[in-house]
Amino acid sequence: MTASSTTPTAPRQRAPARELFGWAMFDFANQSYTLLIITVVFGDLFTRVIVGDAPDYRIGNLLWSLALAASYLLAVVCAPVAGAIMDYDASKKRFLFASYVVTVLATAALYCVAPGLAWLGVVLLIVSNLAYSLGESFIASFLPGLGPPEDLGKISGFGWALGYIGGMCSAIFVLLVLGEVSAENFERIRWVGPWAAVFFLLAAIPTFLWVRERARPRPRPPGQGALRLGLGRVAQTLTHLRSHPDLALLLVSVFFSMSGISIIITYAFIYGAQVIGWDGEVRTLMFVLVQITAALGALGFGFVQDRLGALRTYRITLWMWLAAIALIYLTPEIASQAQTRFGLDWEAQHVFLVVGCVAGLSLGACQSSTRTLVGLFAPRSRAAELFGFWGLATKLAGAFGLLAIGLVQGLLGLHSAILLCLLLFAAALLGARGVIEQRGRARAEAHDRGRAPW
């Protein structure tokens, strides 16, 4: 099948502002799940209270890693096949809506997870994170149709930045009303699941009102169901990825960078509680600082992407991550040396706040630049499918990273295990060396013009 028979050839124009806002609002909405369930609150609640194997919480950490890794592995299987079906049937919004509903319901049900019911927590985490992960790929697949290539960095960066603002808004209720993560406060803090679900439910409504389904459905071959069609198109794409080396190499690099990022997102606040031993006030301040710096990183580097190129921006963020991981590991030593050598009254938790700002800037910018690059390298007729492969790379990375950190921290403890991220980001830099942005963009544009078969 040639590109000319399936691919739109009209020049890309920027979507109306209302549609761009509606698209970005899904990032705003789903950040409540990422932040409250995965990063800040429920992970800490699950490991320290629901499982509660003090003093080092290794079993709780391992169960947490296994649950999330299982959900990512399921997403690896489902995302590309669903993406291929969505492209062919022009059904992106229907698939996105289904993932949204399942995420909301499973997240609300986390209220039922209590000490002694860790198995229920594992099941609900798998279901909710699978649905969330698929939705993340589905919403990203709309990006190539929202504007010309020179605008995609700003559009993607705007979405990520609005996402971090959404995370901060969703957490205000938790910080002011639900309080701290502790066994004594369990009856209040367990409402974090329902609150995250309600926030996601309401904030994503503009997405379904204003984002358009631009593709037109194509008739399926006789006797071919959706699953068979999706599997066939994925097999076809895997065969032809060799003719798109920049996209293939990018996905390899994304695998390693997202392995590291998934570890940081999942364990940053667990690390603060178990290794740094921070106070509740510092934990709250860290949350605010990371959200602000991540939003600034996503928005600011969105403009940098369109000026320097998304690939160069991505490489810069990887170097920033290497510095951040080294500082995370050295935080206790930096505080100790500041006190003994220079007489400075620095506490490790306060040094960790500064390190968190470096990580926050890297977080927003790195995730946004990878999404932009896939949008630039993806032909429009295969956008959902190729963003499914982007989802495959990121979720397989999440599974790998969390399994690896879960096992390593079980042997060495969480403090030493964090150094695994240094190796992962270094591997991502090596993987990105062979990517040539202009060549990848040219191949996608040739396919859209019908000059390159798939």
TrEMBL record:
Residue ranges crossing the lipid bilayer per the database entry: 20-42, 62-83, 95-117, 123-146, 158-179, 191-211, 247-270, 282-304, 316-336, 348-366, 387-408, 414-436
Protein name: MFS transporter
Membrane topology category: Multi-pass membrane protein
Compartments where found: Endomembrane system
InterPro entries attached to this UniProt entry: Atg22-like (IPR024671), ATG22/LtaA_families (IPR050495), MFS_dom (IPR020846), MFS_trans_sf (IPR036259)
Keyword terms: Membrane, Transmembrane, Transmembrane helix, Transport
Organism: Marichromatium bheemlicum
Domain Major facilitator superfamily (MFS) profile: start-end pairs: 246-454
